[in-house]
Amino acid sequence: MAIVIEHGYINPKFLWYWLQKEYKKNREKGADSGPQALNCQRVRELGFIVPSIEEQNEIVNILERLLGNEEQVVSAIEDVIEQVADIKKSILAKVFRGELGTNNPEEEPPQQTVFIMVCEEPEKLLDTIRSRVQRIDLKRIADSDIEEALVNRRLIDADTAKRIARIANGSWLKALEQMEANSENAEMLEWFKNLMRLAYMRNVKGMKAWSETIAATGREKQLRAITYFSRMIRENFMYNFQLPQLNYMSQEEEDFAKNFAKFVNEANVIEISELFQKARREIAQNGNAKIIFFDVALQMIVLLIRK
Length: 307
Description:
By secondary structure, the protein is mainly alpha-helical. It has helices spanning 12-21, 23-29, 40-44, 53-67, 70-97, 127-130, 143-153, 158-168, 172-180, 182-201, 204-215, 219-239, 251-260, 269-284, 289-304. Helix 11 (204-215) crosses helix 15. It starts with 11 loop residues before the first helix and ends with a helix. 18% of the residues are buried. The model has no long low-confidence stretch (mean pLDDT 82).
């Protein structure tokens, strides 16, 4: 089957990249109960984003530049995976030959040594472990106690302390981590706000710059950013219910949600969340960050207008 397009209105390469991105979804449309095939009628019903020809050309140029070294990157990754597999085989061989560790009694712990094991999900522990340990449950710290400690010991204002205490969810360590993360969260909030504003304005050039900015950071920070974006989608969706007890946002985040939350609704919240989950998996697998974040930005254009 061939798709005939009007040259000068649609860049063929742009259409090809778009169909590649939507390949799985389009195949599912053609599946039904028979073989997976698309007929002419189904092809006519496919949805496309058609920006101006200038924007199409720019998107194609960006993608071709980013994909230029893909084969070299894939080859390098495969070499590393093969090396790791060889190392694992070598370690297992030494284990079976008894070359790892010794039976030297001097390496045993002193008498009356106590091992403390911490587990957040004890119900998942094996019975053989549970039968050999003494369980001690540590209850969560009340939000009011964390709030009071933040005000008295860390000299934080009451409103900020209350917000941090709710986010900490009974953990003093998480409350301290939230205090330290405030500066990074402020940066990620700006990234989130810029993404949504650029998507709303359909500013492709701005999206390219946005994706390059985040791609220039380290992979761990990129993963934290995606986690933060996902949390913001959840918080903005819940904000629509006007129930403060369901939200866990800073004052700055809530100020943005007042105008933005209406764009996150039942029609798009699941797909937006899945989009960020997919991006997180690809980043974790050493995918090209520029392509991944640029693709997220482009898809956000369509998702934000769903109602």
